[in-house]
Amino acid sequence: MVESNNELQVGSIVTGTVVKLDEKQVFIDIGQKSEGIIPISELSNLHVENPADVVQEGEELTLEVKKVADEEIILSKKLVDAEKAWEELQAKYDADEIFETEVKEVVKGGLVVDVGLRGFIPASLVETYFVEDFSEYKNKTLEVKIADLDKEQNRIILSHRAVREAQENEEKSALLQSLEPGKVIEGTVQRITGFGAFIDIGGVDGLVHISELAHTHVEKVSDVLTEGQEISVEILSIDPDNERISLSYKNTLPGPWSGIAERIRTGDHVEGTVKRIVTFGAFIEIEEGVEGLVHISQIANRHIGTPEEVLDIGQQVTAKVLSVDEKENRISLSMKEIELEEEQGDIQQYEKEEDSSGFQLGDMIGDQLDKYKKE
After folding, report:
1. What pLDDT is attached to residue 128?
2. b/e for 251-261, b at 16 or more Cβ within 10 A?
3. CATH superfamily of 81-165
4. Quick one: which of 10, 102, 126, 215 has the most CB atoms within 10 Å?
5. 180 phi and psi, to 5 degrees?
């Protein structure tokens, strides 16, 4: 309650008009014989360098009488502001309200802000991540919530981190709702482990298991990915309650069968390794991740009861391509055809040699006949 300026005593609340600004004080007309004085230290709860930064000539103020001695009247603006600020801060604290405040100072251990009083944001409550240098925060406006409020201890602790965490949780929730299996999105490799890599896909981390890194076997995750790398990933599954997202990197990459019909054609001779033997034949790896089937009827140029009669796991073989089906990821091979071709080649070579030998024998016989006639 503002009291009559004629009843001045310590603690009285009065109104006055700024009539003069000095370097270290402000003179106020409060309707008394002498002007009231606000020392620079009583202008604000924050540090003030120049009174003109806080008040202007002609401005009307509500003030508290701090001292009355002889004809000197010492007034305080910060005491009135403080009482009003405590009431407003208590209301904000009770309502868990988010509000803006300006950073006035960067001090050891955190930030000093203006909330009508001197508020403090500890370093641990500034951001959701570690900040090494707070110099850029000076004069910056931050959204905050009150973490602790104690008038008796004159303690006002604020948190910007709590606001950011709430915002990030909302963003995560919205992102999780927008995701669906099969969708391909962009992400950044955040962390590499022995079992896979965690990918930041916009505020939420998803896991690419090591088995989903490539179409071929991967020994170490770091052989495929590096931290900070930008990649495309496919969403495999989503668990919103536990914020778990399974991703695949290999599903966004060309598979070993992609373009196989351009690299391997019907009639080609290919070399490969026997990877699997089954009752009906053997699977031959002819490129990494690409296997062709040699049916048991195409293993040898003779009847065999089982593929094991001719083949062993790990054996290197040569086969002829009978057909290539890229769409179905199937290649049919024949080792028998290679044998037949080799046999045919041997026969042709033999016939060629026979022809050549017959020609030379006739010449020799002819020469002998000519010699006999002359004799």
Report:
1. 93
2. beeeebbeebe
3. Nucleic acid-binding proteins (2.40.50.140)
4. 126
5. -155, 145
